[in-house]
Design goal:
The complex is a heterodimer of chains A (397) and B (377). Chain A has 397 residues and is α+β, with helices and mostly antiparallel strands. Chain A has eleven helices and eight strands. In chain A, strand 6 and strand 7 form a beta hairpin. In chain A, helix 4 packs antiparallel against helix 6, helix 6 packs parallel to helix 9 and helix 9 packs antiparallel against helix 11. Chain B is an alpha+beta fold and 377 residues long. In chain B, the strands form two sheets. In chain B, strands 1, 2, 3, 4, 5, 6 and 7 form a seven-stranded mixed β-sheet that branches. In chain B, helix 4 packs across helix 7 and helix 4 packs antiparallel against helix 8. The longest helix of chain B has 37 residues. The chains are: A alpha+beta (397), B alpha+beta (377). At the A-B interface, helix 7, helix 8, helix 9 and helix 11 of A face helix 7, strand 9, helix 8, helix 9 and helix 11 of B.
């Protein structure tokens, strides 16, 4: 423990010296998170400096090995670092699917060469990644995917369409599932491959959602040359990799909602603008008060359950298929939270754009609409419940 | 503190699980119920539990306890809850014992707690009245000064383990209006005192409880006059956390019985657990149970750390456990189908216990309102 305290002191003084003043204490929702990548233009100078300083010390990916650009920290040290970041209320220097999805997958399945090629660029925020999983005909039945990769010796020629590719229009590389053996059983003919989005034949069209934004894209592959050296794990063994990555994706989605969806103000604070309180500060509308407490308590107990899972892992217990539980509960909790926020603001939640609605109200409306996708993306709640029933509860097929 | 059992705690859990399996199956509780047993539990087994150190687990060593904490007590209660053990932990360890520990004088603690830890004395707390519902400050029972001390008049309901108590702690009003926080004092009344009548009540869950009538009973003050309101809240927070641990064991067992039924009961030539309509509901029960477990572990550790969040975590645990236990029991009865409605099957016993536990120390709605108050809204 003495070593951990030394480490804490070291991190504290490093952060004091290196974290840009303007970023300290800035609420997360006032800053666009840094996703990095080649198309990252007009970078905020403070955020850019913060990313560069952290990356130089491996702190964008604190627990990854140093030789791949990480910080080489133990879980305990990473926790201390996170606590010290929170103390100064600092935003993460870098976010994105490189750090949360493809990185952990490469650490598990990548060759030495693949790790050396891709991980340092992720850590430095140089390459932004997107995920090519779903297809128009393959949603919950992901293994039914049809994007075809034909063997041409040292490379494949890929043809097909991926859908719901988050931020494909802003990404530099894609990790994709393609069919390399159309004759095999559907899970057994799939290969996990990395493709440069600049390769000729790759095109992207954003999809307009009910929330009015276009985070998702349709990604088309027309005779795209994909090098075999970019296959992860083995040809036709992509389903194993795909499932492991889905576990990372669910963890990421759950953690994003665990702390309350990055809300700057508490539900009660937001509610007070619309519902009456008495002199002691008590919200007088019993139904609103109960709705707020329900969300807050469920958020707290969800956070405790994620902590319990981390503590068990730290104590050496094998992690089970908990990620499905966190995915179901975390996403459905966020949907209830957005629902509650909309109801608390009443008619002020009906704005699409100004005038007459403030920024928070307009965001509330769109966040509510966007949240309806939470129980669909990353594996629907129904698929997760199937996984829990089968793999945790042992119920028969 | 980490939300994972230490090696020592895991060992206590294992010992308790083995003991319960061997000596306290649900059939034992059922037999006591069917025999209309006046005590309602086994005095011999209670003594054995005390000898194992469970009764005194969370009391200090100088008072005859083991000097451990609620994290340890919680794992024992969880195992006892699994088979609905009727022994008087709730009344004596969690209510009466904690009230004396937190509010008694040194002499009172010395007089009662070593005997309590040894399994030789039952001390409970009479916190409920006919019109109090979950409001601990609602005290109509009155205490008045009389020659040589205090005389108590009033009625307490469903006093847990009150029918076997050697001593009862009675909140009584010494000043103020009926629902005021100030003006409540605590008194110790001993078994057999003149004017005291404790009548066993028959409850849906068969848990031992008594209707206690006080007709000018002599009471010995515990703590300062008029200042018991805060003490009661602290004691009941702790008792709530202990009850939640017991509920956790019960809901897990109810769910285990249900899962077993889903895997073995065949209809349409297949196990009914293969139907997606039931799978998804089972998955939802599983999730709620996991959440309840996290809340109980955090709340028990909050007692041991004397955390400023103790009251909030007690409310969180009770809100989650109340709903989760009922959910597990309701879904259990439904998934068992017709036999789930029979007295012969155990799932109904868990439903009754779930309901009784829900309505003890406040249901989920009460605790959401309490959470809101504790958080300033």
């Amino acid at each position: 423990m003495a070593d951990l305290e030394t480490f804490r002191a070291e991190m504290r003084s490093w952060l004091e010296a290196n974290a840009p003043q303007r970023l300290r204490g800035t609420p997360a929702d006032q800053l666009e998170g840094v996703w990095g990548g080649k198309k990252w233009k007009d970078a905020d100078p403070d955020q850019k400096a913060w990313l560069e300083r952290c990356a130089a010390r491996g702190l964008t990916a604190p627990t990854w090995p140093k030789e791949y650009g990480g910080g080489g920290l133990s879980k305990e040290e990473a926790k201390v670092f996170a606590e010290e970041m929170r103390r100064l209320r600092l935003p993460p220097p870098l976010i994105g699917f490189g750090l949360t999805m493809i990185g952990p997958t490469l650490l598990q399945f990548g060759t030495e060469e693949q790790k050396r090629e891709h991980l340092p660029k992720i850590c430095r925020g140089e390459i932004r990644w997107c995920q090519g999983y779903s297809e128009p005909g393959a949603g919950s039945d992901l293994a039914g995917l049809q994007a075809r990769a034909e063997d041409r010796g040292d490379h494949y020629i890929v043809n097909g369409t991926k859908i719901w590719t988050s931020y494909a229009d802003k990404a530099d590389w894609i990790f994709a599932l393609v069919r390399t053996d159309p004759k095999a059983k559907k899970q057994e003919g799939i290969t996990f491959i990395l493709i440069d989005m600049e390769t000729p034949g790759v095109s992207v069209s954003p999809i307009l959602l009910i929330s009015g934004s276009s985070p998702f894209c349709e990604t088309h592959f027309t005779n795209v040359k994909a090098l075999k050296k970019n296959v992860i794990h083995k040809e036709n063994a992509g389903w194993t990799v795909a499932k492991a990555l889905l576990g990372h994706e669910r963890t990421m989605i759950s953690e994003a909602f665990g702390a309350g969806g990055g809300m700057r103000r508490s539900l009660a604070e937001r509610a007070r603008q619309y519902v009456a309180s008495d002199a002691s500060g008590r919200i007088t509308d019993a139904a609103s008060r109960d709705a707020i407490a329900r969300i807050e308590m469920d958020t707290r107990v969800f956070g405790l359950t994620m902590q319990r899972s981390r503590d068990a892992a730290k104590a050496g217990h094998q992690p089970g298929p908990e990620s499905s539980m966190f995915k179901v509960y975390g996403t459905e909790l966020n949907m209830r939270r957005q629902d509650t926020l909309v109801r608390l603001a009443g008619p002020q939640s009906l704005g699409w754009e100004g005038p007459g609605f403030n920024e928070e109200e307009l965001a509330t409306t769109r966040d509510w609409l966007r949240s309806r996708g939470n129980s669909i993306e990353g594996g629907t709640s129904e698929v997760q419940r199937n996984i829990i029933a089968k793999r945790v509860l042992g119920l028969p097929d | 503190m980490d939300l994972v059992l230490t090696e020592d705690q895991a060992l206590i859990a294992k010992t308790a699980a083995d003991f319960v399996k061997e000596k306290s199956p649900v059939a034992r509780m059922r037999a006591l119920r069917d025999a209309n047993d006046a005590t309602g539990y086994s005095r011999a087994l209670w003594k054995e539990m005390a000898e194992l150190g469970w009764v005194g687990l969370a009391f200090p060593e100088n008072l005859g306890g083991a000097g451990l904490g609620f994290a340890e007590l919680a794992v024992v209660l969880e195992e006892l809850g699994r088979t609905l053990a009727p022994e008087p932990f709730l009344g004596t360890v969690l209510l009466g014992g904690q009230a004396l520990l937190l509010g008694g004088s040194d002499a009172q603690k010395q007089a009662w707690l070593p005997k309590l830890c040894a399994g030789d004395a039952i001390v409970t707390l009479a916190h409920q009245e006919a019109r109090s519902r979950y409001d601990l400050n609602h005290v109509e029972t009155r205490a008045e000064r009389a020659a040589g001390g205090w005389k108590l008049r009033g009625e307490k309901i469903q006093v847990l383990d009150g029918h076997v108590a050697d001593a009862l702690l009675i909140p009584a009003r010494t000043s103020g209006a009926v629902a005021d926080a100030a003006g409540i004092s605590l008194f110790l009344v001993t078994k057999g005192a003149a004017g005291l009548a404790a009548t066993r009540q028959s409850r849906v869950d068969s848990r031992g409880a008594a209707l206690v009538k006080l007709d000018g009973v002599a009471g010995e003050p515990v703590g300062a006059e008029g200042a018991a309101g805060e003490l009661l809240a602290r004691v009941v927070d702790r008792a709530t956390i202990g009850l939640c641990a017991e509920m956790l064991g019960g809901m897990q067992q109810a769910f285990a019985l249900t899962l077993e039924h889903l895997k073995t009961r065949k209809q349409f030539d297949v196990p009914i657990g293969s139907f997606q309509a039931l799978k998804h509901r089972a998955a939802d029960v599983f999730i709620e149970l996991e959440l309840a477990k996290s809340a109980v572990m955090a709340a028990a550790r909050a007692v041991d750390e004397n955390s400023p969040e103790l009251a909030k975590l007690a409310s969180l645990a009770k809100a989650k456990c109340s709903d989760a236990y009922l959910l597990a029991a309701h879904e259990g009865v439904q998934m068992f189908g017709g036999v789930g409605m029979t007295d012969e099957y155990d799932i109904g016993l868990y439903l009754k216990r779930a309901r009784a536990a829900e309505l003890t120390f406040g249901d989920a709605a009460f605790h959401r309102a309490h959470w809101a108050s504790l958080n300033g809204y």
